[in-house]
Each structure stands twice: as structure tokens, then as C-alpha cells.
Specification:
2 copies of one chain form a homodimer. The first copy, chain A, is of the alpha+beta class. Helices cover 36% and strands 23% of the residues of chain A. The structure holds N-(aminocarbonyl)-beta-alanine (2 copies).
């Protein structure tokens, strides 16, 4: 069984990197805070005598040696959004280290090497798409394309990677026997149902679009409404239209306008430009396509109604990803054997596991999030739930690794 | 008559200060660009042997000596919005200098000293309220209150004033015989009507409110719509509601949400906070109060619908200001004598003249704006129209000053 004190201490040490004054953390990918977090992670890995590899996109792999080539990998990410908590991502990485610590304590050299991965820029908050590090690792994105991505703050991914010294020369393990990711649910379902564990069957579809509205700056006091080309008003129209769409499509469809920037952003100037992000999600790809069609329709309506030009580019588009059924079954059976109450559910958030799933057996374990709150500094998961998840991870990984 | 080449050259020299690469100018009040503009203005005033005074809020007064105490003042401002043109404000100041140049050429020492004023922060784009310099000069705002105002970029007015060295020790002329401000219309009416000159009867009411929506940051992929407290969506709701209000109230009512800032402003985080500006205008104060009541209603509805907290503070509130009827009549009669076609109209934009009107006879002259465009780098007024306006100003001012 895992050591609760040791596990929680590791979480707190990592959480100190990028800690916000009012609680929570801001550790956007490849910022100084992320560099601190990476240094702390490397320190913890070295303490466990793990072999460390950093790949060209900054993914960190800590390896506890085994006998064969194929590895059992645990992993997640340590980047956060700028209003993040201690657990999103960090839990999967730190619990992985705790599993290794347990193997080390027991002096076990498993058949399959046991690897803990921390993937770069999972959140996608600074650089789109999300799950970028695992996407590159899985071979679905070229690393040179990743280097060229411009972030929401104008920074360029490749430059930031080199700046913080995490543009590695090594490659991660190629042969994955199984990938298991422990993560907080980040939603309200498990708590609602009073259950210990979520057996994650897959991840819903994710569609991110950046919408740019080009209007015309004009004087707020002299320009009649009919002569305006108000980019801000067009953006509000699209935002409200998406909200109406969600009401019409029902709770499976989500839509979020999380970022919106007006130019020149002054009180008495009609906005000449609005750049907004649209995050659409649905577990059903056909429904998600319908939502994207609604967005397209709203953009067209905004052009016609407000005399603006609306363009868009896709920041991320991932179809729903099912996890490997056999591995999902194994995890569920193990949880039940251990007396943990559980249910199957799909993930609302994107996760690195979904990028591994196309290339290797992959699945996830969820533990409850208090009030379903995440991407918020009040994100919290009770220590008991953390220990349940970590113990389940330990059991599944040791079973998979073969002792 | 004014000298067209000399006048236009002065406008171009001032326009070089804060010039934008694609045309137009950004000379927000008390920035380095404004400091350059002020230096250029002082240079031009010295060239005309004017006595220069700078008051504690940075208003610049150039004085061409006369015989009596009471002055005839021309004036406007040289600050701009960040997407401004060459004429908004600058025209009134530079045309004033051209009037002085004509007096000087003719060796005339008028009965009333002739003063050219450039008032600080007329635009209100950096520091609210607008017309701040003339408001302080007129005695309606305490200079110490002005010093404490925080700008849209977080700067503090008093600090910026000292930084650029324009926190003067002198005071402007106290006794104003007449104040006449030449300005571009910034709207489409004169061009529409094919007229040379607008005789401005007054300025419409202006209401600026900063609305702050406090919601809760949440995960865009896991948080059901019914559990969200989406500050960005609430801001969009208020924005659309104001647009509907304008449609219902008719063209006399204007509403603009020119600035909107979301926090944390990330693609996959429901916004925890939105700060937006609302600019409401109407020539009728009762109607403007009704629009303000609608804004209050929308803020309440947003709270109820989106589970957010909405607070607000007034950034500026000016009732409609009528100009001095006798002076308005004089200007109109003079224009007609000169063979200029003209009409009476009220101003949609706020102007320094409206702050002088309560303390001295004040009125304004408008010249046409091409396509009514202003607060846009494509703002333009034809040289012929500029000369018409400047010649009318010359005639009115020399009449008022008494030769
Ligand atoms: N786990 C997590 O919050 N991932 C971020 C990617 C997303 O779902 O937006
Ligand atoms: N003249 C002018 O554009 N003034 C700015 C103040 C306002 O009307 O918003």
C-alpha cells in the first residue's frame, strides 16, 4: 500500500512551484513556474534513483528499471491553467512516483520497467492544442510543428522550451505494454454518486476554435448603430448563440467562450477586432459536428447582422477516444476486489491517456473532485480519495508490470 | 484669412508624435507619445512668441497678449485614442495657433488676450472621465482627485503627469470673455447634408459605467452548464441586452461596450471575472436615465440567470450641455456672412467646450468628417473644410477679441 504522508508531501512540494498568494497554482506550460515544477519533479525522480529522459518536446520520463523492453507507464502532466489547483495532472505524476517508491522499498525489479511520464503542455491553456506533449510523443504531431506554435501570450513554444532548458535530446520508451493514468475527475459525478473511483471508458470529443471578428473602430458617441461594424457586439452575439445551442442540445453538449480580447479595448471606441476562443465538447462525434455547424452558422449570422468579417482557425480537434476495453475491465475488476465502490464514466476533460490510446493499451482511474470544481484554485480532492486512487494504481501497475 | 500651408504643416508635425505605422496616431494622455506631442505644441507656441502656462493638471495655455484681463480662448486637446486620426482635438488647437499667427502677422494686439488651450486627457480613453483637464480647469473636479485616478493600463494619472514633467505650477486665465472650439464633427451629418459648417448647439449626455461580473472559474470540459457561474457569458448577455435596448429606443440612444477583459482568459477555463465598460449617450437626459435603468435591470437579470455577482461604478456622467445661445447665434451669423453653408446640430462626442460652458460663454464650430469616421486611423477632413472652419474661427475670435 502507498505511504500517505510521503505522497501528500510530494504533492505539496510540487504545489509550491507557481503557488498563488490566495491558494492554488499558476504553472502554465514552459513558464518559469513550470521550470520550477520540472526541477522539483526531477529532484524527486533522482531521489528514487530513476533513470531520467527528456525528449525534444520536453516530456519527462522517469524509469524504474525492469527486465524486458516493454514498459508499464503511468503519467499525466504538471502544467496547470493560471487558476489551477494542486491535483489536476500533478496527482497522476506524483502517485506514479509513489508507486515507484513502493517498488523500491520492496526491492522489486519488475518484469516490465515502470515509467512515470510528465507530458508537456497538457492543459493547452498556453499553447493549443492541449495534450501537446503526448500528441508529439505518440507520433500524431511533428515536433517541428509543435516548436512553431504561438501561445496566448505571444510566446513561441520552441523558444520557451529552449529558454527553460527542457528541449531534450533523448526519446521516451517506445514499447508500451500498458499506460495507466490516475487523475482527479474534475467534474461532479463521483461525489454526487458517493463513489470512490471512476473507471474511465474514454474521453469526449474536443473542438477548439479561435474566432476572429474584424469590424471597424468608430466613435462611441457619434456613430449611429446602423453604421457600426462592432466586433465586440458580434462576439457577444456568437457567445449568446452558443449558450442557446447548449440549452437546445441538452447537457451532453458543452460550449465555452473562455478567452476574448477586444481591440483597441477602450471605453469610447467601438471595437475594431475581437478574438475569442470557442471550446465545444460532446461524447458523441456526430453531435459535436452539429455543434461546430451551429458555430459556423452563428459566425455567418454575425457577419450579416453586424457588417463584420469573421474568420476562424482550429486550435484543437480530437474525436471521442475510447480506452482499451481489456485494460478498463481489469482496472474495474481490481477496484472491486479491493472493495472500492466505482462506476464507469467518460472523461469531460482531455487527458494524455487519450493520445496514448491509439498506440498502446491505455486507461484511466478517476478520484472524486469536491463539488466537481477544477481549473479553479479551490480544486480539492480528499486525502482518502487520493489514497484509494493511488492504491488502485499501485495494484494495477504491479499486476501489469509482473513481479 | 488663414494660411493653409502653414496650418496643415502644423497638423502634420503634431501628427508625427505617436504616429502609427499604418497611418493614424496613438497619443493616449500622458504617455510618451503625448509628451512628444506636448513638446511639439510648446515649440510651436514659442515660435509664435506666446506666453506659456502649464497648470497643475497639465493643461497648456499659450497666450497672445492683449489689453484687458478677460481673454478670448480657443482650445481643444492633443491626446487621442489609440486608434486615432490627425484631426480629433489637434485641429482646434492648431487652428488656434494659426489664428494667433494671423494676428501676429498683422501686428495686432487685441483688446482681449487671445489664448490657445490644450486640455489634458480629453478623450478619457486612458483615464476616466473624459474632458478631465477642462473639468479640473473649470473647477468642477478637484485636482487631487484627478491625480488619484487609475487608468485602463493601471497607471496613476498624477504619477504619469509628473513623469512626463507636465504637472505645472501656473494657473490658466481665470476670466474668459468667450471660448470657441473648432473641432471635426466625427459624425456623418454635415457630409450627408453637403454643408461646410456645423453650428454646435450643445453636447449630448454621456454616461460611462464600469461593470464587473464576478463568476467562478471552472473546467470547460467537465462543468455542466447548470453549474456554471460564467462571467463572460453574463457580460455577453448584458452586451446583447444593450444592443436590443438601442434598437427599441431608436437612433438617439447609443450604447457601446468598447472594453471587456476576461479573467483568466484561457480557452478551457470558464471566466471567473469580466470587467466591461458601458458608454451610453442620449441628447435627452430623461431618456439617458431610462437607458441607465435598463443597464441596471440587465445587470440584475445577469446575476439571476448566470449565478454571478455584478457590481458597477460610474466612470463619467455628464448631463447634456447647451452652449451659450448668444455666442452660437453670433457664430452662425458670421458663417452665413462669409457665405459658408451651415446647420445647427448637437455634438455626439464630448468636448472641452462643454466644461467651459457652465463658467463662461462657450460654443463650437464643426467641420465635416469624411464618412463620419473618427476614433479610427482613417479619420479625415478635407483641407478645404479645415480652411473654412479655421477662417470662421479667425473671424469669430477677432470679432470677440476686439481689434
Ligand atoms: N485535465 C485537464 O484539465 N486537461 C486540460 C485539457 C482540457 O480538457 O481542456
Ligand atoms: N472629441 C472626442 O472624441 N472626445 C472624446 C470624448 C468622448 O466623447 O468620448
Amino acid at each position: 500500500r502507498v505511504n500517505p504522508t510521503r505522497l501528500l508531501e510530494r504533492i505539496v512540494s510540487l504545489g509550491a512551484c507557481g503557488a498563488l498568494p490566495g491558494g492554488g497554482v499558476s504553472r502554465l506550460a514552459l513558464t518559469d513556474a513550470d521550470a520550477q515544477g520540472r526541477a522539483e519533479l526531477l529532484r524527486q525522480m533522482r531521489e528514487l534513483d530513476m533513470e531520467i529522459r527528456i525528449d525534444p518536446v520536453g516530456n519527462i520520463f522517469g524509469i524504474h528499471a525492469g527486465v524486458e523492453d516493454a514498459v508499464v507507464m503511468m503519467g499525466s502532466h504538471i502544467d496547470t491553467v493560471s487558476t489551477g489547483g494542486l491535483y489536476d495532472g500533478a496527482l497522476g505524476v506524483i502517485a506514479g512516483l509513489e508507486v515507484v517508491a513502493c517498488l523500491k522499498d520492496a526491492g522489486i525489479r519488475p518484469r516490465h520497467p515502470v515509467v512515470v511520464a510528465a507530458f508537456t503542455n497538457e492543459e493547452g491553456a498556453r499553447y493549443a492544442p492541449d495534450m501537446l506533449g503526448s500528441l508529439v510523443y505518440s507520433g500524431a504531431m511533428d515536433v517541428d510543428d509543435a516548436y512553431r506554435i504561438t501561445g496566448c501570450d505571444g510566446s513561441v513554444l520552441g523558444e520557451e522550451l529552449r529558454r527553460i532548458g527542457h528541449c531534450g535530446m533523448q526519446s521516451g520508451p517506445r514499447d508500451i505494454h500498458a499506460y495507466v493514468e490516475l487523475h482527479i475527475e474534475q467534474g461532479p459525478v463521483l461525489e454526487d454518486q458517493g463513489l470512490n473511483i471512476g473507471i474511465v471508458t474514454g474521453v469526449q470529443g474536443i473542438s477548439w476554435t479561435e474566432v476572429t471578428v474584424e469590424g471597424r473602430s468608430a466613435h462611441a458617441g457619434t456613430t449611429p448603430a446602423r453604421l457600426r461594424h462592432d466586433a465586440g457586439l458580434a462576439a457577444a452575439y456568437i457567445t449568446m448563440g452558443l449558450s442557446d445551442m447548449v440549452a437546445a442540445m441538452g447537457p451532453a453538449q458543452l460550449a465555452t467562450v473562455g478567452a476574448l480580447t477586444l481591440t483597441p479595448n477602450l471605453v469610447n471606441v467601438v471595437a475594431s477586432r475581437a478574438v475569442m476562443t470557442v471550446d465545444l465538447r460532446n461524447p458523441d462525434n456526430t453531435a459535436l459536428c452539429a455543434a461546430e455547424a451551429t458555430l459556423a452558422k452563428l459566425m455567418g449570422e454575425a457577419e450579416a447582422r453586424y457588417g463584420v468579417n469573421v474568420s476562424h482557425r482550429t486550435l484543437a480537434r480530437f474525436e471521442p477516444v475510447p480506452f482499451t476495453p481489456a485494460l478498463v475491465d481489469t482496472i474495474e475488476a481490481t477496484a472491486r476486489q479491493m472493495g472500492l465502490s466505482c462506476m464507469r464514466l467518460y472523461s469531460g476533460a482531455g487527458h494524455d491517456a487519450q493520445m496514448i490510446a491509439p498506440v498502446a493499451p491505455a486507461a484511466m482511474i478517476f478520484v472524486p473532485s469536491v463539488a466537481g470544481i477544477s481549473h479553479n484554485i479551490r480544486e480539492y480532492t480528499h486525502p482518502d480519495d487520493i489514497m484509494n486512487g493511488a492504491n488502485l494504481l499501485l495494484r494495477v501497475v504491479t499486476d501489469q508490470a509482473g513481479l
